[in-house]
Amino acid sequence: MEMEDDPSPAAAKVWRPGIDEVAEDEELAYDPTAYDCLHRFQLDWPCLSFDILRDDLGGPRSSFPHTVYLVAGTQAASARQNYVAFLKLASLGQGRHGKKAAAEDSDDDDSDDDDSEDEGEEGGEDGDRDMADGEGGERAAPAGKPSVRGRAGEPPATFHFRMVSQPCGVNRVRSMPQQPAVVAVWGDNAQVRLVDGSKLLSELAAETEPTAATAKGKGGINKAKPQEVKPLATHSHSAEGYALDWSKAKPGRLASGDCRAKIHVWEPAEGGRWVVGGAHTGHEGSVEDIQWSPTEETVFASGGTDGSIRIWDTRERGRPMLTAAGAHASDVNVISWNRGVTYMLASGADDGSIRIWDLRTFGGGAGTAGAEGTAGPAHVAQFLYHRSHVTSVEWCPYEGSMLASGGADNQLAVWDLALERDPEEEAALAAEGNAAAPEDLPAQLLFLHAGQHDLKELHWHDQIPGMIVSTAGDGFNLFKASNM
User: Fold this and answer.
1) Hey, what CATH topology would domain 237-409+411-450 get?
2) Which of 17, 299, 402, 475 has its CA 20 to 30 A from that of 452?
3) What is the spatial distance between Cα 85 and Cα 89, in angstroms, rounded to a whole number?
């Protein structure tokens, strides 16, 4: 008598947000081995912008647990409730992520089924550490709330903060590379302020217990209440803006661009002052982003709502050196200058497209950018994956072929230009239980992170290879993918 084989389970597939539907007989399965770590946290108000602060802990570093310093600016319900927050996230472990953690989790589940149910409810849908704000939906000062669930022997993650009062919502915040405690803050009141958080960062570095929302500091100062810190410098534009960047080649040099197409360059002066120069003009719409050259002190790039990318020299204020008119068919929202391959620039636009540019084609010759209105250079690569406008793009600081992008489609994608599709390799990996990649998935798409809503900005950590931090309307994610 012949026995029929048991029907084999359906092969796992990659689910693409916004593209694939979930049938009634299907369910989404989260794979914790996709991440080496994944943490969530939030302030009491959404943050459109943040920056990662370079620290004194060394790098590149890879051993868990990690400590990360950030600065972020809020968009509160009323102007007077806003602040700039200096944050320290300490004891960031792997939780239930990574292959080893997954194996330990499987062993624990055999004996801790009851505990797992309780811990899963406490720690969020993925069982990772979740640092959230006050309970009950009330607007409270930021506070850490690590989940119970974590890898055996790991200390709980801790959340530390100091707040500086801000008279308006924060459109963008950037830390000076050479002096991380000095941050530039672009407010929605058309004003750029420079704030020195050195004292606050020193307090955070020395703090071992999580910051308590009601704790009293020296002199009876409530740590949870935003402090008044006099700005190092202030400059008012004729309109609010978003474009803001510090030079990596010249300490203290800053550029800010506004919604009325004007760009101002800030120069450090004696006595801890800054001198703000006259306007660089050339864009025909709002200047959305600015990026300084990683190597040239006087050169920066800008992108704007006129669809152009322009290259400027601070010694020539009247007009840009080069213009790629029509770089995108829609608004250029964000740009990023590659620090490893300094002739490469990436841009993201309102139509969801990401384009890669070779700046060597911007200078002279047929089909390149020159005078206003002439044909611009051709992009060397294009990704059309995002299904809504691109809100952030950034090259990887230690791998010149990799970049990450975020969009209003609530997806964060990591790209590697060096990748090509290899069917044989994919077939070999499938034997390990990996989900089969759709044929139309771009070969250069290395990793896809979802789960945040209204994604605004992302940054790679300079000192922890593979770690990315992102902010959205519903808070922050900090993660490291297992394949990076």
Assistant:
1) Methylamine Dehydrogenase; Chain H (2.130.10)
2) 402
3) 12
